Amino acid sequence: MEPLYDAIISLKQISTLSKHEQLVQGIVECIENETLVVGDQLPSINQMVENIGYARKTIVKAYEELKDRGLVESVKIKGYFILSTKTDVVLKVALLLYSFHRFQEEFYNTFRKELGDRYQIDIYVHHNNLEAFENIISSIYGKYGAYVVAPIENPLVRPLLETIEPSKLLIVDRYLDLGYNYSYIAQEFEHSTHDRLTEILDVIKKYDKIILYFRKDVDYPIGVLNGFQRFVEENELIGEIEKNYQPNSVQKGVLYFFIDDTDLWELFRDSLKMGLVIGKDIGLLSHNDHIIKEIMSGGIATISTDFNEMAVKAANFVKNGQLIHEIVPSYFIPRNSL
């Protein structure tokens, strides 16, 4: 380890570098000149104290920064090891999403663009499966400088996420209360669904009834269902809730409200086959906007948050680490399908 010690000691002459920055830079230089390669073990904290003369907390801080950048990993009992030689990466980010549907892809693309090439983003998907969620958290714990997580609505999730340092964790999409010290940028579903539907009450009254397709056994937000039911009851409308759209069941005079795009496209195809005019004979309303809904057959009206805005705010959290508590609004986006 003499070359590593020499590299760090030589940086003591640079007065603009703090002690922990000298340690980080010395290790980075040794990685870049291949004095250190993947799998090499770094000196223990005690060895660093003895040979460099800095306090334990300074050395721990330097090692933790290198872990956050994905250059170093800590192995319990054994110590610290070189994990990567990508020294241009300033932070390694774990992004854990429900799935990778179109609107989540848009979130990722904006998130990636805002952070730039010097941030390494690893994507994980849990599909609203608790066992998958637990396994992912277990496998990524302690290996990233930031964790951006769309949580599952399950009481067992909270203690899992509380193992992550608050300053490194951002909750996105679904709200989960982890206490004041944890950041979130999330949606609210019940009031926003109710209020957006109320905004277009006159349009909805054109139709004989409104059907919401909603399944409780998947990851649909229960707030959408609650908001829909309250809206229908308050306005004395004929409203129905169905699990799935049944092929060839489309009826004239009905407004169809979809959470899942698969059912939406199925009904869309049936309406074309049956010669029904969307926006006149039937109405279509969808949850979560994306570009295909904007351009498809004159556009499909949606109730949606701005996922690009959410992604920009999430990227800002990763870059500056400032605590944020924000519920992002949902909007009604009018198009020809109503």
From TrEMBL:
Gene3D superfamilies reported for this sequence: Winged helix-like DNA-binding domain superfamily/Winged helix DNA-binding domain
Leader peptide range in chain numbering: none
Source organism superkingdom: Bacteria
GO MF term list: DNA binding; DNA-binding transcription factor activity
Keywords: DNA-binding, Transcription, Transcription regulation
InterPro entries noted in UniProt: Peripla_BP_I, Tscrpt_reg_HTH_GntR, WH-like_DNA-bd_sf, WH_DNA-bd_sf
Name of protein: GntR family transcriptional regulator
